[in-house]
Amino acid sequence: MSVSENTKNLIVPGDLLTCAKENQTIDILGQGIYLSFENHLYNSNKIYPTNVGIENYTTKNNKNIANIDYNSKRYIPQQGDYVIATVTNNYATHFVCTLNNFSSTVNLPYANFPQATKKNRPKYENGDLVYCRVKVVDSDLPAELECMDSETGNKEGFGLLEAEKGKHTAILNCSLAYCRELLFNDKGFPLLSDMVKKNLSFEVAIGINGSIWISTGSLLETLCVYKILSKCEKAERNLHAQIIEDTIKEYIKE
Amino acid sequence: MTNLKYSVLPNLDGSCELSTSNSKVITAVSGPLEPKQRHRLPLQSAIEVVIKPSFGMGPTPREVLMQDKLATVLQAVIVTELYPRKLVQVNAQILESPFDEFGSMMGNSFNEILSPMIDLNSCFNSSFISLCDSAIALKSSFVSTLLGVTEDKLINIAEVSDLDLLRSFNFKSLHHIVLEVEENKPTNVLLLDSQGDFNDDDLVNVLDNAQKITQKEFQNIRNILKDKVSQDFIWKA
Questions:
Q1: By the CB < 8 Å criterion, does B179 face chain A?
Q2: With contacts defined as CB-CB under 8 Å, which chain B residues touch A104?
Q3: Is position A225 within any domain?
Q4: Which domains, ranges and CATH numbers included, belong to chain B?
Q5: K Homology domain location, by residue (chain A) (predicted)?
Q6: How many Cα atoms are found within 13 Å in the side-chain-facing hemisphere of A20?
Q7: For A48, nearest residue in chain B (alpha carbons)
Q8: Number of domains chain A is built from
Q9: Which of B4, B134, B144, B219 could bridge across to B124 with cysteines, CB 3.0–4.6 Å?
Q10: If pLDDT is split at 50, 70 and 90, which confidence band does B103 have?
């Protein structure tokens, strides 16, 4: 399904959702849809679309899910999301991190690291990038991050994003929908696999908060990957192969 | 003819540049942000509106009045409960106003009244696109219209292209109307700000016409939003 076909069901705030029109039962409301709370028992309350985007209905485990697909730049923490956080401060029990410039800060407690003890505290400095997951979101508290899988206690690839010796790294800021697609939909959107197929070797960490961290063996390769990812965000799908080829030619094979 | 350009400022969450035949503004929306302590509301988000004039230092009292009007409407439209203790910041910079030229206040006593109304009308429409661009939750859409009543005619001021023509009109009254749009139809009056001499019939006539203009203008805005959504997902297509 291409998006251009789908823009027929464009939803603008104030519109009536198809599910409301056809009186469908929706079990889970996703992003972009808001249930008003005029009535505390939640019966006969209105559901509004709150964002401009495309209606999307799916059924998972016999539950109807409705959401609106939209793109944005500012990330709002949601439980279970993989994010790249920047350490901005540290206290006796936790680091203070930011996920977005000028957004509310989030906390990364020392206890949420693998093999955490009272004496064994991670030594991160301000400005370090950490790949972690949002553990708890409470509307009255700052969101809490974790650097491990809290069920198994394993590291699971989380932790400090640092350049190994001889490596070059960069961080790229993209729109949120693009990051989501790159991270979760490699089969339907094989941009990263296509880059690897062209003999580009790189390490990548994608945060849902709109940051992509890249690490490669040389400065030119880093620039090349950076350029491809930022150019493809603004180009149609069928041009991506050409962009990859051109950029590799420009930066690596003169 | 209203000309709208979305996402003109890449580093901000949402932005829009609006130009009509006689005015030009650029608006930007950032949010939800971490507010200062004095802006922090326990159960809803604070809305901060800053409007900068086309020349000189600002916001002057002229712009402060415009800010207050814009803020009251935004308060009704933004789903503030979704972002408790956060701040939504709306900035507007007026780029061109039809009364910018030095000495233009002379002659027509309506200029002083008309010029902020024209600017505010543009700020309203532009800030709606900016809010949509920034993905801040909105309850409904809104469209703003500015109508002038002369002895025998009703004039949509945003469509008067010639400045001399605009000055030549002898307006009896001016009406700035912001209508809430639900399901492509105007449903509710969010702001009605009138200046001058008018009676009931004039106002009913103005509201009738404003509904028609709103409906037409909303189709234009819808097309722009459709274009925006397909541009947002251009890498997917």
A1: no
A2: 32-34, 85-86
A3: yes
A4: 3-232 (3.30.230.70)
A5: 171-217
A6: 18
A7: B139
A8: 3
A9: B144
A10: very low
